[in-house]
Amino acid sequence: MKIKDVIQAIESFAPLQYQESYDNAGLLFGNPGWELTNALLTLDATEAVIDEALARNCNLVIAHHPIVFGGLKKITGSNYVERVAIKAIKHDVAVYAAHTNLDNVRNGVCAMMAGRLDLQQCRVLVPKKDLLKKLYTFVPHTDAEKVRSALFAAGAGNIGNYGECSFNAEGSGTFKAGAGTNPYVGKQGQRHIEPETKLEVIFPAYLEGAVIQALLASHPYEEVAYDIIRLDNAYQQAGSGLIGSLPAPMEETAFLQLVKQQFNTGCVRYTPLRGKPVQKVALCGGAGSFLLKKAIAAGADAYISADFKYHEFFDAENQLIIADIGHFESEQFTVDLFYNILTEKFRNFAPLKSTIQTNPVNYL
Predict the structure, then answer these.
(1) Cα dist. 33→60, 100, 156 in Å?
(2) To which H or E segment does residue 293 belong?
(3) What is the pLDDT of residues 124-174, one digit of tens each?
């Protein structure tokens, strides 16, 4: 197996197109064509993690946080980022990061958090826009089902929890086959009128290549007529944060104790209690203060995230409880997510989980 095979598995789950514009997810060091010895899974690609990879014969480190985030103008070893780069490159250790793309995918980092609390009926808190496209094509009636099935198999036609969605309208298409053509119907030099089905399907933009390939391979015409437009619709399967409901309402202090226990944190910073039960819970891995107003608007009783500043706690305005559990603590189960993705894709592959504690924050 090559490193690119592992990358493909991760990106089929969390496409790079889902990452935020400021991010730097993807392969940071190394060659995707290298033969894979093994992969080490971690939250942060620190120097100690690179040493661990070498000691455990892993030439690929898969991290959540990109070790190179804002770019490098020089590599002299003057800080930990440069030292990681030097060590990884010197010893042919590839470093890959899946960051906000893994945060934004519906079953990603936030879903791991939600699973710790057994949240039900979860949905993306702020779905992303500009991720969807629509295909229009025109097919002879007799071939419509063949083309539909091919497009569905390529990943088109999914809307929320519904699959194989399409719209079909009957009409008539006209064309005149020119010299050198071999028309599926009609004759050269003569205008032909063909009863056709207008077929419409929606698909994530990153699948455009696969969808077009499926269309061309399944369509009977030499020249396939189709249109693709970008949609402004929010994509419910990708975006920031998650919101769901506890199996039953909980008293506030008991809820906070559950959060502390389930996220193995030494400290939960929280806003004043409201004297109301908690059932509807919003959450976001990492620094999530930017979603506070969205959590309030969604009717959440509590919002679990990290890295709130002092004055941002006032913004709760007694409309919900903010529970700041720490950055590392909110994302620690990302390693398990990587493991699940890879072992489900490759049944005979056993990636290794790092034993290095990379959390730079300690509690007394």
Answers:
(1) 12, 25, 30
(2) helix 292-297
(3) 999 999 999 999 999 999 999 999 999 999 999 999 889 999 999 999 999
Binding residues for a divalent metal cation: 64-65, 103, 327, 331
C-alpha 12/C-alpha 121 separation (Å) is 24
Which residue, chain included where needed, has tokens 């620690």? Answer: 332
CATH among 3.40.800.20, 3.30.70.120, 3.90.850.10, 3.40.50.2300 for 130-233 = 3.30.70.120
CA dist list (Å): 116 to 119, 275, 332, 363: 8, 24, 12, 22
Binding residues: 64-65, 103, 327, 331
- Of the chain, the end-to-end C-alpha distance in Å amounts to 45
Tens-digit pLDDT profile for residues 170-219: 999 999 999 999 999 999 999 999 999 999 999 999 999 999 999 999 99
| Dihedral pair phi/psi, residue 245, rounded to 5° | -125, 140
d(CA 113, CA 304): 9
